[in-house]
Amino acid sequence: MAGFLYKKLTEKERGEIKKESEKIINSFGKKLSEIKKLPGESFIERKNLFREEGPGSLGNEELKKRILNNAPEKNKEFIIAEKKGWE
């Protein structure tokens, strides 16, 4: 499998890749230099940094129904999640 990940290049191929990459980088740099005004950092000041806790716009049953509708795998009551699928 590792043989598919690596290809030995000739000096000619290396030179072509180097020229092409320099061309791409120079083109990108030129486009960046043509930008007159870069956007600045934005900062929003808020009087209240934390929201007030309270009842949501949906009831518990409606929220549960919407969550289960979005779940790819589920049974009547619960979302079925993969267990240790990353190992």
Explain the overall architecture.
The protein is mainly α and 87 residues long. It has a domain at 58-82. 44% of the residues lie in helices and 0% in strands. It has 3 helices and no strands. The longest helix is centred in the N-terminal third of the chain and has 23 residues, at 11-33.
Q: What features would you highlight for this structure?
A:
87 residues; mainly alpha; 3 helices; flat
Chart the SSEs and their pairings.
Layout: H1 2-5, H2 11-33, H3 60-70
Give the assembly state of these chains. single chain
Largest sheet, if any? none
Global Rg? 27 Å
User: How far apart are the termini?
Assistant: 20 Å
Helix percent reads 40-55%
β-strand percent reads under 5%
Given the C-alpha coordinates, what overall shape results?
flat
How do the helices and strands follow one another from N- to C-terminus?
HHH
Low-confidence stretches: none
Question: Would you tell me the structural class of the helices and strands?
Answer: mainly alpha
Average pLDDT metric: 83
Total of helices: 3
Number of strands: 0
Short description:
The chain is 44% helix and 0% strand. The relative contact order is 0.05. By secondary structure, the protein is mostly helical.
